[in-house]
Amino acid sequence: MQHRILIRDLPAKLGETVIVAGWLHRLRDLSKFGFAILRDRTGLVQVVLSTEQLESLKGFQVETVLKVTGEVVKKQSKDPNANEVEIQAMSVEILSPVKDVVPVEINKEEVDVQLDTLLDNRVVTLRHPKQRAIFRVQAALVHGFRSFMESQGFTEIFFPVLAGAASEGGAEFFRVDYYGREATLTQSAQLYKQITMGVYEGVYGVSYSFRAEKFATSRHLTEFNQLEFEVGFVDDMEDVMAYGESATRAMLAEVAMSCVPELELLGVTLPPLGDRFPRVKLKEALEIYKAGTGIDETQEPDLSPAAEKWLSTQWAPKEHGTGFVFVTHYPESKRPFYVALDPEDPTSTLSFDLIGFGSEIVSGGMRINRYDEQIARIKAKGLKPEEFEDYLMMHKYGIPPEGGWGMGLQRLTQNVLGLANIKEATIFPRDVQRLRP
After folding, report:
1. Which of 141, 167, 204, 370 has the fewest CB atoms within 10 Å, counting from its CB?
2. Do 80 and 155 share a domain, yes or no?
3. What is the pLDDT of residues 176-222, one digit of tens each?
4. Strand pairing class (155-156; 202-210)
5. Are 373 and 281 found together in one domain?
6. What's the CA gap between 412 and 397, in Å, rounded?
């Protein structure tokens, strides 16, 4: 029995009779014969049709699913060095007919529609080669993350989505009626991955996070994924940052290796990695930004988007040969209750952001591992310790010095590919207005 061949494998089948199957991407009628452009998950191929075969396809729209049997032949080209192939069709079978006009043209070089139209018609628009390429890159990022963590001997954890309290405080969480009790959708896997420090010492996972923020911007989602990491028995914050740097390098190496056609199609060049990502304290970073641009934000408690962009696309490449920089020691007021304070300056935290591709892609730091200190920090943040009983139990019964970080998957994908809106990097986005498809 002859099996289907993927389009990417056709050059190795020159002169052979093969079966290919996919979607009708375009049809060209040249009177006495014609061409069908067939698309599968690996690419496009031109199929040469006889008059009868061409006639059999008339009346069907693009996206009709076809099965073609034919001979792989060298494609005629004006370039003598071209190594493209096409299929001389022997038979064409319609597997799934499409009679209605497709709502969005996806057989052009670009999907030339507004973002809402692109997302409303996700069923069809995802089939466009450039849209498909986005999520191939995203999958490679996750694969690189998992492969690196496995190479370090860490354990993957699957985190709950329902929780009994807001994991980081604040009002931006979704309430759920849970058998007559109030539950929330988790904002973060932070508390759960910390609990497992008493079990595995090093864990990672891909979590779902929900934030009920009423923002409709190019940077906000109400549902997103985090690449989570936590490790115990670390000496200081440098250990945690080192894992963040190594994971980032491994993820980008996976993309560079397995997504060459996707990066080329999307016109993306990955930034330089350099020998080592620089580490600078927030106050120092703001002074560097002022000295380099003349813009004084030295009294601000955080980096502005403009400062993040300048540091990672101008300063770090020029001074350190890399497109990445760790910014450390954020103010206590800007970090959650579980982040350790700097013993040399209690108004500052042992925390960091990794800035790359023009904005923050990783946020992490050292955690509080002593019970009394954690109780005090929860109260200082205006939260109630009794709402974190399960979380605090680990502090009572021994948890090592530890730290970790989270990396927003959709934000990272957006930044790697230079997309204008985070929703373009989300296969089925949810925001303050969107709950479909």
Report:
1. 370
2. no
3. 999 999 999 999 899 899 999 999 999 999 999 999 988 777 778 99
4. parallel
5. yes
6. 36
